[in-house]
What does this fold into?
Amino acid sequence: MAIRFNPFAPQEIINPYPTLARLRAQSPVSWNEQLGGWLLTAYEDVKLAQKDKRFSAERVQPFSDHMAATGRPALESMGKLLNDWLLFRDPPAHTPLRRLLVDTFSPRAIENLRPQIWQIANELLVSEFENEEVDLMSDFAFPMPALVIAYILGVPDKDLEKFRLWSNDLATVIGNSRKVEDRFDIGAKALRNLTEYFRGEVDSRHSQGLRGRLIDQLIEAQDANGVMTKEELIGTCILILFAGHETTMHLIGNGVVLLLKNPLELKRVQKNPGLIPSMVEEILRYESSVFAIVRVAKEDLKIQGKKIAKGDRVFLMLSAANRDPSYFVNPEKFNLSRSPNRHLSFGYGTHFCIGAQLARVEAEIAFRRLLPLLEVSELVNQELDWDDNFILRGVKTLRIRQSC
Ligand code: HEM
It folds into this structure.
């Protein structure tokens, strides 16, 4: 009997892994009616598809075509703006845009940011646990990476609340949150607001001749050799702001959930903080904040005997690949000293996450600060409110309190 995976059924939102495991074992390339696309669930297929030139990352138009009827006009206006994101471009258009970001996110540049990141984490946590109960998502997991990425870009901290609102709204479209009925209008409005916001910031920094932050470097690149258009510059800023905190926020949140649900592993890392870097990799593998990524077939092709037609959308299920028993020993076990751990949570190939090192360092610092607090904490609600966002996996709130 065919295995049905309804990604928006409540039980699949809470725990999609048993169904994904059955799909991977019995039907690793399967058509999904609800998503209107193919699901690839085996590690090897998910990895290779990201290098396969028969697949395109230019997926905005096919998405808007797929959505047809409801919300289409809003999507079309969004599409024009999203097409400026390097994430949604193939080489050669992708290459020069990515090159402009490489130095800012290099391992050495990120190492130099450590003091700044520590300071942000310390300031946020200073008074947290004086309160009886806190929401770690809104009080820490969101603002920490958002403040770091605002600093890197060169936008003011005071605009944090705007970023929270606009990013949440944009995520309902980028991540396909089915339950938000008017998500296309909401997402389109958020993207327009972000575009206007960054247009203002770019113009203001340009006219003041400011230097040193990522926005300034992008302005210089635009002035000097016209590598990017103004629209691409603004699109890149929005992408960096959005990708730079939504994902890391969920890495921190998902990590806290896993640690509180695995007290023996929590004790192990508390005794031996040297395990934190490998723990971060295991959180990424076990509960990847990017659940899936999307590609479009550029030609008719076959994978594992299944015919994929030109124009079909293909969902590369990072979450399923990361638990493939052909690549991971005892994959359903959360083991924070797992080695090797070649998860695919940052993608692979051309679009490999440019912020991977930043995310790793942020998570490491976040957990160094959080571990002592988690020792004396418990979840207030055992039933977690997982977001129904299909691309970004995480909980909406994480209420914890001091345990007696
Ligand atoms: C836990 C944290 C993160 C995860 C799991 C993650 C995951 C990913 C994945 C899977 C991709 C590939 C998407 C695709 O191929 O379609 C990607 C690309 C990207 N990520 Fe991240 N990311 C994280 C944090 C960050 C941060 C902190 C930044 C900040 C700069 C960032 C910026 C980007 C950008 C700009 C791209 C597009 C790269 C390109 O198209 O060449 N990400 N990320």
